């Protein structure tokens, strides 16, 4: 349903998102019947992705035939190639969740005008939650104004992220990042749909979000929701020009400011000294070490780390010698001689 108070282009985007959501909801009634293919390892696409993308593009180009299209599945095949107005579409963000029946996925649509995001829709069809934003007019969830969290202490915050899942992703780096963040925050979550993660930051449901390896259609709509809700978004070093840099950090301003120093050393844009520090940290959280050692290193706070550096080294205790188990071979008992007493 369109609203007369919304920007006309946003109304069209809402119509397109709801059309895609209806397709997704129908398919979710019988997941086993959905045809699935694999773009690369752990990166899936379904007939539902294609059908919902087609519905979105048809709705948008019917209203604005001169606009351009950038979609996850079809790229720039549709729409005008040289338009200042480009719709950025992810028809089903969270496909892996969807094909498992895990109800965390969404439709994401954004309008870029001369390179700047000006309209945004993120629609969660499982809950019928509609997140919208127009540049300069605020962000809304189901027509109710939303704002980012008011928390100011990282220790009280819930942070969402996305784990690496592709071949070639830097798993050790992510372990180091989690080792830095988990003991400092109230919780770390991995819902599995970046656009919805950003919408939740905008609504104050979580306090921050970070992830690497994201494409522009994953973050375009969510980025406008966050900024219109009073939050900050950028790359791991805090720079705001992040849309095509494949690393994203978003959060309430005070929390964003506390996370940037932790993540900046892991950014591909970090300086040499920061990259060296990150390499040392990654080696310290080497997954080849024992689980007990990993836990101990991961839960050391900043003050404890400093105290350890300043305190004199205690003499190492001698490690207890492991007990050696020896298997004794038991031979068959010999027959008693005539002079031996019988056993009792």
UniProtKB/TrEMBL annotation:
Protein name: Inositol-1-monophosphatase
Protein species of origin: Variovorax ureilyticus
EC number of this enzyme: 3.1.3.25
Catalytic activity from the UniProt record: a myo-inositol phosphate + H2O = myo-inositol + phosphate
Essential cofactor(s): Mg(2+)
Region annotated Disordered, chain positions: 296-344
Classification via Pfam families: Inositol_P
Assigned keywords, A-Z: Hydrolase, Magnesium, Metal-binding
InterPro entries recorded: IMPase, Inositol_monoP_metal-BS, Inositol_monophosphatase-like, Inositol_monophosphatase_CS, Inositol_monophosphatase_SuhB
GO MF, any single term: hydrolase activity
Family: Belongs to the inositol monophosphatase superfamily.
Coiled coil ranges: none
């Amino acid at each position: 349903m369109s609203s007369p108070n919304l920007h006309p282009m946003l109304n069209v985007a809402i119509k397109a998102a709801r059309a895609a959501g209806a397709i997704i909801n129908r398919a979710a009634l019988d997941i086993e019947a959905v045809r699935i293919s694999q773009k690369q390892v752990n990166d899936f696409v379904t007939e539902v992705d294609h059908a919902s993308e087609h519905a979105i593009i048809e709705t948008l180009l019917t209203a604005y035939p001169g606009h351009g299209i950038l979609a996850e599945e079809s790229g720039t095949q549709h729409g005008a190639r040289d338009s200042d107005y480009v719709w950025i579409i992810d028809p089903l963000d969270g496909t892996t969740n969807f094909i498992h029946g895990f109800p965390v996925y969404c439709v994401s649509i954004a309008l870029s005008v001369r390179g700047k995001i000006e309209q945004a829709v993120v629609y969660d069809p499982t809950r019928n939650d509609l997140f919208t934003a127009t540049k300069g007019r605020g962000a809304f969830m189901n027509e109710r104004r939303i704002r980012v969290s008011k928390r100011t202490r990282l220790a009280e915050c819930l942070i969402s992220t996305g784990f690496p899942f592709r071949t070639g992703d830097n798993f050790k780096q992510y372990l180091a990042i989690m080792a830095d963040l988990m003991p400092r925050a109230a919780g770390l979550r991995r819902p599995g749909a970046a656009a919805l993660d950003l919408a939740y930051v905008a609504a104050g449901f979580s306090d921050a979000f970070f992830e690497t390896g994201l494409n522009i259609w994953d973050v375009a709509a969510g980025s406008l929701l966050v900024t219109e809700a009073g939050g900050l978004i950028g790359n791991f070093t805090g720079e705001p020009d992040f849309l095509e840099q494949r690393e994203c950090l978003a959060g309430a301003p005070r929390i964003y400011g506390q996370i940037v120093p932790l993540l900046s050393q892991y950014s591909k844009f970090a300086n040499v000294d920061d990259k060296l520090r990150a390499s040392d940290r990654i080696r310290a959280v080497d997954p080849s070490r024992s689980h007990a050692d990993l836990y101990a290193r991961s839960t050391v706070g900043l003050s404890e780390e400093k105290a350890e550096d300043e305190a004199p080294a205690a003499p190492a205790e001698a490690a207890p010698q492991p007990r050696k188990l020896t298997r004794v071979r038991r031979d068959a008992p010999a027959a008693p001689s005539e002079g031996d007493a019988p056993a009792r």
